[in-house]
Amino acid sequence: MPTYRNDGDVTYRINDTDDLVQNVHPGESIETYDPNPPSDFTETVETPTLEKTISGENVWTDGIKPKGGLNYSISGEFVGTATIQRCWDDFASPKLYLSYAGSGEGRITDDADPHVKYRIGVDKGGYSSGTLTVKLSRTS
Do 16 and 85 form a contact (C-beta atoms < 8 A)? Predict the structure, then answer.
């Protein structure tokens, strides 16, 4: 599947390989069959990745489909709890998957449903101070 990285300065809405519209922020990647990706996009062998630097509460990455697995990473100097959520309805009613108080990394294995998405961030009430960087990247 062709993968493209957004090397521009703006966020684009692109159809992924399941024909669902996704936000692709600068520096993020997406798998798409779009024959005419924006000129800011560079074809790459990277797997789709979402990354966000957070210094507040109720801040999230966009959702990403695992297609078998995701790696997650939480780093930085902060006091608070990072949360990974799982959802089937574009995060209208997300479900808690995992919480981390502090830095950490790991892997999520999930190939049960092609419409499930994950996101990572800091929920309301989960932030005290500092800055953390969170990342979700597809394993294959």
Answer: no
Tens-digit pLDDT profile for residues 62-88: 888 888 889 999 999 999 999 999 998
Q: Select from 1.25.40.20, 3.50.50.60, 2.60.120.260, 1.20.120.1760 the CATH code of 49-138.
A: 2.60.120.260
On whether the CB atoms of residues 87 and 44 are closer than 8 A, the answer is: no
pLDDT for res 35: 84
Query: Is 56:124 a contact under the CB 8 Å cutoff?
Result: no
Amino acid identity at 32:
T
At residue 42, what is the residue type?
Answer: T
Detail the DSSP E strand segments found in 7-103.
12-15, 21-24, 29-31, 41-44, 49-54, 59-60, 68-80, 82-87, 95-100
Q: What count of Cα atoms within 13 Å lies in the side-chain half-sphere of residue 115?
A: 4
16 pLDDT band (50/70/90 cuts)? confident
User: How many Å apart are CA 115 and CA 54, to the nearest integer?
Assistant: 26
